[in-house]
Design goal:
Blueprint (H helix, E strand, L loop, with lengths): L10 H31 L5 H23 L19 E3 L6 E3 L3 E3 L4 E3 L4 E3 L4 E3 L4 H27 L12 H4 L1 H32 L3 H6 L12 H9 L28
Antiparallel strand pairs: 1-2, 3-4, 5-6
Helix pairs in contact: 1-2, 1-3, 1-5, 2-3, 3-5
Amino acid sequence: MGQRIHFVVDPQGWCCMGLIVFVWLYNTIFIPKVILFPHYEEGNISVVAVLCYYFCSLFCIASLFRASVADPGKLPENPKIPITERERWELCYKCNLMRPKRSHHCSRCGHCVRRMDHHCPWINNCVGEDNHWLFLQLCFYTQILSSYTLILDFCHYYYFLPLKKENWDVFVFRHELALLRISAFMGLIILGGISRLFYTQLMGIFTDTTSIEKMSNCCEDISRPRKPWQQTFSEVFGTHWKILWFIPFRQRQPLRVPYQFANHV
């Protein structure tokens, strides 16, 4: 079953996402041209380092676009509620529609989302049951790409041999120091912010609570069995195969939840 396209009309979200795309384009264009390709041509680095950088960049932008246009779990206007699951549904007092428990109404998007974690302006979309795994991949690959970029910036000046530059009239070489300082500054800002967000997301999956539930403290009085971490991660990513948790080019399929946990999912 293909994943539905979900597009949010929000100028603020477009600006935030455009800023992320700009940072990605900046590093994808200038870092290889200033560092990777010249040092590869002079034998300072191998082709593996170049390919790894582009793979990280590809996985990062793929998870960004997929998380931004994927349906996070929007509930239909007239949902069909199975008789056996009616006790696990409740009425939303904002849109006056029935929804499963642990759903939340997003005021920015104007509808309810299954197991909504939060609305993220950086992807211009909600993070919910159906795209949470893509958001985690985005955080993961953004950290790798930012760290890789910072390492290359550092090695270019303090570890690699000096380049035998012949094209001093080229823009990137004439403004090399300024370009790499901008790259390092953006890398530090993004790495710091994303690392904190990624840690928060991981802790939420380990404890099987969303960001909204943590802020509202609605799960403190719920007595539910603690799931193994493999189970909670498998439910988010839609597969027990851990290698597939890192691949954004696939379709997520909801897992069958064991009976003892069914009342709390």
